[in-house]
Write a structure and sequence with these properties.
48% of the residues lie in helices and 13% in strands. The N and C termini lie far apart (47 Å). It is α/β, with parallel strands linked by helices. It has one domain (18-332): Glycerol-3-phosphate (1)-acyltransferase, CATH 3.40.1130. Belongs to the 1-acyl-sn-glycerol-3-phosphate acyltransferase family.
Length: 333
């Protein structure tokens, strides 16, 4: 059986039916999230992101991350508590607080939102930043928040993106500031049509032919390595898989999909990543070959290896607050 077809969004029924109650609940949740974002933008952002920045960039980021981290916490609460989506973490156990470059596969338009679930468990949710397409930065309210928390916009035109990336990344080199920087090297979400084009290009150019991920674009990744090389602790290689259907944004809002989100995370010391252009390109290509195999095994077995590395939100709330390391991470965030 072609497992990619089994998990294709267009061929698998939704996990939960879209009922009137789910529609009403989803609209109310989205309204609350939009309203609280708007209130944060009106009452918090001018002071934390503008006025305080004149005196200290470090404390400006600290205050902004604290307040908007509270707002970002609403998303994992929506996913896991209201929608009852099970989020399963696998792979390495991660320290509570590190400066990290995350590289992840891009299965669907909402992959990046589930990284908030991992960041929340590490007490770093207010400090996670994304490199994402510039059109998202133009969204009303959400886009304004993305600007305030310093997400990096790209237009997928390297002659324009390189300057923006280097300029913004150069402001993230202070080790005093906690940082998770998330990059999706595929550059776009996965579809069967895009996969066929990627495979054709790979076959014509002597590159690995991948089934479950697209060939990674390496220029942005190499710039991140170059600019941040002296200020980061690790790379987290994150592989995301869904059961039983890849969700879209409105699936998340109404709680019809996914039933489970699985994340496999491998921690790699930053100092072990090769710095030369050719070696870094080959390293990233190899990581995506490993992702391809991980996803193939996930589709066959229903889970990633070494799963259960992080607790659920109930455990975070009750047990985590008694853990001194988590306490320190939350107080320092």
């Amino acid at each position: 059986m072609d497992m990619s077809k089994q998990f294709n969004s267009n061929t698998v029924l939704k996990h939960r039916p879209l009922t009137p109650a789910r529609v009403i609940r989803g609209i109310l949740c989205l309204f609350v999230i939009l309203l609280t974002a708007f209130m944060m933008l009106i009452y918090c952002a001018p002071m934390t992101a503008v006025v305080l920045r004149f005196f200290s960039i470090h404390y400006s980021r600290k205050a902004t991350s604290f307040f908007f981290g509270i707002w970002l916490t609403l998303w994992p609460f929506l996913f896991e508590k209201i929608n009852k989506t099970k989020v399963v973490f696998a792979g390495d156990s991660l320290p509570a607080k590190e400066r990290v470059l995350l590289i992840a596969n891009h299965r669907t338009e909402v992959d990046w939102m589930y990284l908030w679930d991992l960041a929340l468990r590490k007490g770093i949710i207010g400090y996670i930043k994304y490199i994402l397409k510039s059109s998202l930065m133009k969204l009303p309210i959400f886009g304004w928040v993305f600007h305030v928390v310093e997400f990096i916009p790209v237009q997928r035109k390297w002659e324009l993106d390189e300057y923006i990336m280097r300029n913004m990344l150069s402001t993230f080199t202070d080790r005093q500031d906690p940082l998770w920087l998330a990059v999706f090297p595929e550059g776009t979400d996965f579809t069967q049509e895009k996969c066929r084009r990627s495979q054709k290009f790979a076959a014509e150019n002597g590159l690995p032919v991948l089934e479950n991920v697209l060939l990674p674009k390496t220029k942005g990744f190499r710039v991140c390595l170059e600019v941040l090389q002296d200020s980061m602790d690790a790379v987290y290689d994150v592989t995301i898989g869904y059961k039983h259907r890849c969700p879209c944004f409105m699936d998340n809002v109404f709680g019809v999909d996914p039933s489970e989100v699985h994340m496999h995370v491998q921690r790699i010391p930053f100092s072990s990543i090769p710095s030369s252009e050719n070696e870094a390109t080959a390293w990233l290509m190899n990581r995506f070959q490993l992702k391809d195999q991980l996803l193939a095994d996930f589709h066959a077995q229903g889970h990633f290896p070494h799963h259960g590395t992080e607790g659920d939100l109930n455990r975070l709330r009750f047990e985590g607050l008694s853990d001194p390391s988590v306490k320190r991470a939350l107080l320092e965030a």
